[in-house]
From TrEMBL:
<feature type="transmembrane region" description="Helical">
    <location>
        <begin position="27"/>
        <end position="44"/>
    </location>
</feature>
<keyword id="KW-1133">Transmembrane helix</keyword>
<feature type="transmembrane region" description="Helical">
    <location>
        <begin position="64"/>
        <end position="87"/>
    </location>
</feature>
<keyword id="KW-0812">Transmembrane</keyword>
<keyword id="KW-0472">Membrane</keyword>
<protein>
    <recommendedName>
        <fullName>YcxB-like protein domain-containing protein</fullName>
    </recommendedName>
</protein>
Length: 192
């Protein structure tokens, strides 16, 4: 059996990416967008009814009022999505900085994996991270993000993809990811 050991370092940017791609945070963003879309549709229906009453049978006035209400609701929806997006980015940055400053005791972490084991060992204490159907690996441009557990209580860690362009590190990391993905039930996703 092959054993792979890698020492990687954490960065604030990595911790922010870890928070950004949390399934819970992504759900909140899409839920907020859908909620504001439904509110916008409801408000448009109300303003369309008001336009019909005000126009009192005049088709050109009704059309002008409908176009204005569509524009107003469209701008309101876009502003709502922009607020959700930038608020989410701010919260992810705050959470990522907090994670990096308060909970990461060392800047480098060893990872050990023995082929065939149902877990990865992380850190000096060799904390076990299970490789099962609850594990999701998200590959971004700079990191591999690992999420395991229930959506409201996830165990997470990340691995830097480009350890200052060290070819030995890259080959070990590629082999590790390949072996982990081959485990039954492990989910793998690519994102920007």
């Amino acid at each position: 059996m092959k054993e792979i050991s890698i020492n990687y370092f954490n960065t604030k940017k990595g911790c922010i990416q870890l928070m950004k791609h949390l399934p819970y945070n992504r759900f909140i963003f899409y839920f907020g967008c859908a909620l504001f879309l439904m509110i916008g549709i409801f408000e448009f229906q109300k303003s369309a009814e008001v336009a019909r009453r005000v126009a009192d049978g005049n088709a050109s006035e009704e059309l002008i009022l409908l176009v204005i209400s569509v524009l107003i609701e469209g701008v309101r929806f876009l502003l709502s999505v922009a607020v959700i997006y930038f608020l989410g980015r701010l919260i992810n940055r705050i959470k990522g900085n907090h994670l990096y400053n308060k909970h990461i005791s060392s800047s480098t972490y060893p990872i050990h994996y023995r082929e065939g084991d149902p877990f990865i060992s992380i850190g000096e204490k060799r904390r076990r991270f299970p490789l099962d159907d609850k594990l999701t690996i998200v590959a971004t441009q700079d990191y591999y993000l690992f999420y395991s557990g229930k959506p409201w209580k996830l165990d997470t860690f990340l691995i830097n993809r480009d350890q200052e362009s060290d070819p030995v590190y890259r080959s070990k990391l590629d082999k590790l990811i390949q072996l982990v993905i081959e485990q039954e039930g492990v989910n793998f996703k690519k994102r920007k």
